[in-house]
Write a structure and sequence with these properties.
Blueprint (H helix, E strand, L loop, with lengths): L14 H29 L20 H26 L2 H23 L5 H26 L8 H20 L1
Helix pairs in contact: 1-2, 1-3, 2-3, 2-4, 3-4
């Protein structure tokens, strides 16, 4: 980050920081998605497996598994990733980039596991999840960026100014 502060000026390019943020967000994305999806599947009486999270075939709204994956992905985006992205990135203008990168890595991983996603349900689920995560994280960052900067009150500044002035006057008299 620049020496002038978090919200001011240009930031220097730090590729290792960016890579570590991407890896952190991807790990949290998959971990929380699998935990939420497994919890929803357990509550719905469905068998637990990792494969459906990375196979586009299972993202269908006509099956219980697809509905579980859809709601787990949306809950993950709203309740987990919105806050995690905001905390990791700390800038509203970077939220879209990091969420998009996270979902692109998920796309490539799903492509590697089960082929290119051809399911309409997969694309709807992931696009909605990316939109919700971006909106949540940007709102949190903007809210933080717009917080009031606490300064000393005028009366505090005036009393310290008068105290230093009287100290200077007193030292001049000796």
């Amino acid at each position: 980050m620049s020496e002038r502060g978090r919200f001011y000026g240009e930031q220097e390019f730090t590729p290792w920081l960016t890579i570590s943020q991407i890896l952190y967000l991807q790990a949290v994305f998959w971990f929380s998605y699998v935990i939420l999806g497994s919890a929803f599947a357990f509550l719905g009486g469905l068998p637990l497996s990792l494969f459906p999270f990375f196979s586009y075939v299972h993202y269908s709204f006509s099956y219980d598994r697809g509905i579980v994956l859809f709601f787990a992905l949306l809950a993950n985006s709203i309740f987990v990733m919105g806050y995690v992205v905001a905390g990791a990135v700390e800038r509203a203008k970077k939220c879209l980039d990091f969420v998009f990168t996270c979902h692109c890595i998920h796309l490539v991983t799903c492509w590697g596991v089960g082929g290119f996603p051809l399911s309409f349900g997969w694309w709807i689920s992931n696009i909605l999840a990316a939109v919700f995560a971006t909106i949540m994280s940007e709102c949190i960052c903007v809210r933080y960026e717009l917080q009031e900067i606490k300064l000393r009150h005028h009366s505090d500044a005036q009393s310290s100014t008068s105290a230093s002035a009287s100290a200077m006057n007193g030292s001049n008299m000796v």
